[in-house]
Amino acid sequence: MKRIIKKSGLLIATTMLVLAGCQNDSASKKVDLDKESTGPVSFTLFSADPHPQWDKMESPVSKKVKEETGVSLEAEFDVAGGEQKIPLMIASGEYPDLILPKGNAAKLVEAEALIDLTDLIDKYGPNLKKVYGDYFNRLKWSNEDEGIYILPTSQVNQTYWAPGTGFMLQNDVVKQLGYPEIRTVKDFEKAIKDYKEKNPSIDGQPTVGLSLLADDWRIQITTTNPAFLATGAPDDGEFYIDPETFEAKMHYRRAEEKEYFRWLNHMNDSGLLDKESFVQKYDQYLAKVSSGRVIGLIDADWEMAEAQRALREAGKEERMYGMYPVTLTEEFEHHNFQDTGYLGGWGIGISVDNEDPVRAIKFLDYLASDEGQILQNWGIEGEHHEIVDGKRVIPEDEMKERNNNANYVKQTGVGALKGFAPPYGDGVVDSTGQTYTIASPDQIKDAYTETEKEVLTNYNVEMWKDLYPQKEDFPVKPWGAAFNIPVPGGSELELIMQKSLDIVKKRVPEAILAKPDDFDKVWDTFMNDLEKADVEKAEEEYTKLVKSRLELWGK
Amino acid sequence: MEIAKKKAHTYKPIKNKKSFWGSLIHQRYLYFMSMPFVIWVFVFNYLPLWGWTMAFQNYRPGKSMGEQEWVGLQHFIMLFQDERFYLVLRNTLAMSLMGLILGFTVPIVFAILLNEVRKKAFKSTLQTITYLPHFVSWVVVAGIVTKVLSIDGGVVNQVLTATGLVDEPIQFMTKGGLFWIIVTLADLWKEMGWNSIIFLAAMAGIDPQLYEAAKVDGAGRLRQIWHITLPGIRPTILVVLILSIGNLISIGFEKQFLLGNSTIVDYSEVLDLYALNYGIGLGRFSYGTAIGIFNSLVSIILLFLANGIFKRFTNQSVM
Description:
A: D-Maltodextrin-Binding Protein, domain 2; 21 helices; 11% strand; B: 2 strands; 1% strand; flat
């Protein structure tokens, strides 16, 4: 007995020790701005993303970077998104010199593991400042703490050459119907109806008119977010942000959207909506779409890309989809291309354990410089690209190698370090008028199928993008995108949002599947449920969040 | 899990301290040998109970015990005030009760039938076939079930419409009331063979002489089943029953999650999924823990109740 007590006492003692060990001594270090080492230096780096093309800094391009900066990296890439490693780092209090924590940055900042980069960038980061440009304010952490802890590594000023969301029709539909205008939901409905009447079956299977998907959160992508876009509002997550007053409103509570859902209800009633829409799982949806017998979709490109690819591989070009900027009526415009400005997001930070933060920031600054970016995108001059008439050109052989050699990045180092510093996006040009990245609209056009080209020609445009209202038609949204405003963990707002999402998942399908006469009744219940879940309180809280972001971003 | 027949204690309680220490020293090797297991149980089953303290805090990860904010029973009050909690509790209990009734009786019947099969090869083939679905993951089973019940070329609807039983294909997966039955039947299909193994094993342990004696006395097949097979596996039946009653509330959420869809969530959401969505999913570790504690307490109470009742009527118990 005594032994047990003794043993368990020992165990409890060890547990206590472990628990005590979890407390970090979080004495924040003051960065010495003038302390800088000379000569070669090596930094440890942790990235929460895998990097199968990591060259260990031994490729020609990375060697060149090493030459220029004197910095080499000993990198560790996690396959588990840092979910375990980062809390462990915090528990042990030992950090690598550079960290790319992905979604776990807040934990590191809370543990005071990252240094404030504001002064360092001010003194040693002219190129970083240049890349972020007017969006530099958006790097600030929060209203309470305006320090910069993370340098976002997503592309700045990216140009989008393809629409991300819209109403999709198989190319054969518009072709067979003689390229009718597809502008409003009525046009869309008519196209589906006419085509379905003419072709009751495709490849021997019954034709499906419009298929939606409600598998867990995906209901937002195909069913509820399009309600935003079809009624002239940009996608801001679950809340509509008034562009003038910045008041947030649960977007289902807008009167226009009720009419959009009424139209979906009508689609169901007239038998054009796939009866299995709200029952099918994602894989079933993809399988169905890949079979080529679903003629209409309302979806985001990334969600159905796999099916689109399958159709292409099967050689069913006419069953692939074109994307149209459909709205409820003509008074609305499709806001797919409205500019959110730079959204920032995940990036890189320098830890308190870094002995030489000045060299580290200089290293990142070099990667962000014109020279550094051209190295990462085009490679070394004379080796990976050539200058012809003052323009950068990639020789045909090299381009072929680039497209076909799966280990190109690892062998040459072109792009191996790209994820560690902020790059310019596609379409941004340097002082000589050439793009930083090698992507161009021609690349996209080259990838179109013959059928796609035919459809586009008949609509008198060159790209799908041209059908949409352009970026310049809309003002830049000063709050960015509301869905990327972090909601405080464990807050009441978060709870209400979860509750209302559960209500949405239940009531929206119910309303769409109801008899048209019952639609209003179901919709009223839906609205009442939301109110009961305290959605007004959530709107109030969300408005505060939007306003505080506007304040932080200095608009 | 040994069945202890209740009988009079044969040893004398040790009153005198000296003799306790005496026997401890005397049996020191036995104690010594059991020690690793005691430590094992303590470390992995009792130490984690320390985490229950989270339910009484506003727990934030990464902070030490002293820095946590204590909130008393707040999370429990919130839990018992949430309408949704009662809804998911209803679903959980309904599905587990249905599962208990069917998932318990059918394997016994199946085991008895199988036991009566005389041809060895046929018997073992049948047994293997029926317990194979146990190894199929729920993801696959859910896929099969939805496909079979689909209105878009599902077998069931094809049969129903072809035979003229219904005019329009029935959308089975959107009928809330049917969901419980679908889950129960899918579970039955998957686990029937597996669950019958333990009963078959118990039947194998029955003394063949009993059957011979019964035959001599003129008992037919049914009589033999009733008077020999069933009483022979009674202890096993009771243990399995008591243990399943103890597990009534913790039925997991895999099958409901995979088979459910947004139109019938009022029937498909179960306690564990609720704990996941509203607890850990929202970073509310304390709330999730409170649900976990509720779960454990209900399980323990059910187990003791069931055990107590059976002890009283049958003199058998698992404890």
